[in-house]
Amino acid sequence: MVRCSAFVTVAWFGLCVSAGAVSVYVEDFGGATLTNRENGYVGGFYGNQLALGQWFGSGRKVAVGAGVLTVLHDTGSTRFAGVVLDPGIFGGQAGRYLLSFDVKEIALSQQGVGNPAMGVTHRGRVDVWQGHGYDVENDSADSLWANSFSGTLTPKGNASASRLESLTFGEAGDGYTLAFDYDGSSAVALFFGADKTAYPHLTVVYDNIVIAPTHAPEPSTALMTALGLGMVCWRRRRRGAPRA
User: Fold this and answer.
1) How many helices (H) and strands (E) does the chain have?
2) What pTM was estimated for this model as a whole?
3) Is 41 exposed, middle or buried (0-12, 13-18, 19+ CB in 10 A)?
């Protein structure tokens, strides 16, 4: 009976931990490629379609290689690398999700030039958007316009889009996090970039991008499973008990 109880306890713990630890998206840039396009459509009849799950951005400013994503900002506006994720990876589960990532480097092109303030005039920036109502049959104007210049997802026709969360930072470090509430059916767009308002130029290097749900499994579900396992153990013990 002790062995059976221990099994139930381990099963309960495993259910709670494993369900909460499942990631819906992981990118370490070990095998990722970049589409050399600064913008494009998801759905609709405009053409210039972006493939879901494919990173895109200016090949002169954004690079994927050596296991990292590098974004160079040397213009007068923001600069991003983007990816639009298929809603299917979320399994139709609405709720709160956590985006985590590492910033391996955030560096100025020249030291001692101008008056840069890291985190203010020069900073890394990550934006999360969601959009739905885009026409996957490409028969109408209903679409989403993803733009790596501005890090935005703009709806066209009867589609809709909204920015969920944004995070800026001024120093390198592992384990940055950004929580967002997802509706369960939209495509999700991630934009990882560099933002500055003055010279010198800025480079930001990203790695280990992960999206995972923040919620644990429903206690009632895990409880019923554990109780079911306990009942099986009890029945086995009853059948194995000696008869009087």
Assistant:
1) 2, 15
2) 0.80
3) buried
